[in-house]
Every structure is written in structure tokens, then in C-alpha cells.
Amino acid sequence: MTQRDPNLVFRSRYTLKHTDGGYQFTFYCAYCDFCYTAGWIFIDSVEEARVLAEKEARLAFNGCQCCGKWVCNDHYDMQEMMCIKCMKTVETKADSKE
Q1: 44 Cβ partners below 8 Å, 6+ apart?
Q2: What is the arithmetic mean of pLDDT over 38-51?
Q3: Which SS3 state, helix, strand or coil, does residue 14 take?
Q4: Residue 49 DSSP SS3
Q5: Burial class (CB in 10 A: 0-12, 13-18, 19+), 96
Q6: What is the rounded distance in angstroms from the CA atom of residue 9 to the CA atom of residue 1?
Q7: How far apart are CA 5 and CA 46, in angstroms?
């Protein structure tokens, strides 16, 4: 994983499991089924649990510095700090200028 912008908001699709007093979130790559399941969080508020789970999960994903999507390593260009879709757009624009 690369160095991340701490101000980049973590936004990822997720699923939620809930038991008596506990929450478990599974977060997914924006482009595939890669997922990360955070540990069980036992707290009263689902929103507080989500925030804690996001802090844990963001370490398993890369935030695109261009579009802000959170993706797995397979969909991220580590050198450019962009997702593969943004990289294709940048490359296409560069090719058209030549």
C-alpha cells in the first residue's frame, strides 16, 4: 500500500452484520469483489461502529487521488496514486495530445 492522504474520505460499499450489541462491516473495492471484513465492534451506535470499522478497513484499500474511489491493489497504480480507470483516462488524454 502507498502513503495515503489522511483527508481523503473513505467511501466504500459495504455490508453489515448485526448481533446483540455488535456490528461487523465488510467493505468492497469499487471495481471488484475484493473485500475486507473489520473485526466485531461492540458499541451502541451503528454510526460510531461504522466510523471505527472504516478506520480499520482503509488500511486494506488505496484511495485514488484523482476520483476518490477506494480500490484494491489490483485496481491501483501505486506510482501514480490513481485507480486504473483514472490512469486510463490520463493516458488517453496524453495520447490524444501527441
Answers
A1: 21
A2: 94
A3: strand
A4: helix
A5: exposed
A6: 17
A7: 25
Residue 67 has pLDDT above 50, yes or no: yes
> What are 43's strand-pairing partners?
none
Residues 6+ apart with CB under 8 A from 12: 27, 28, 29, 30, 54, 57, 61, 70
- For residue 62, is pLDDT > 60? yes
Query: pTM of whole model > 0.85?
Result: no
What does the pLDDT average to over 78-86? Answer: 93
Give the Cα separation of 24 and 9 in Å (integer). Answer: 20
Extract long-range pairs of 56-62: CB within 8 Å, 24+ residues apart: 57/10, 57/12, 57/25, 57/27, 58/4, 58/10, 59/1, 60/27, 60/36, 61/10, 61/12, 61/27, 61/29, 61/36, 62/1, 62/2, 62/4
Phi, psi of 54 (to 5 degrees): -60, -40
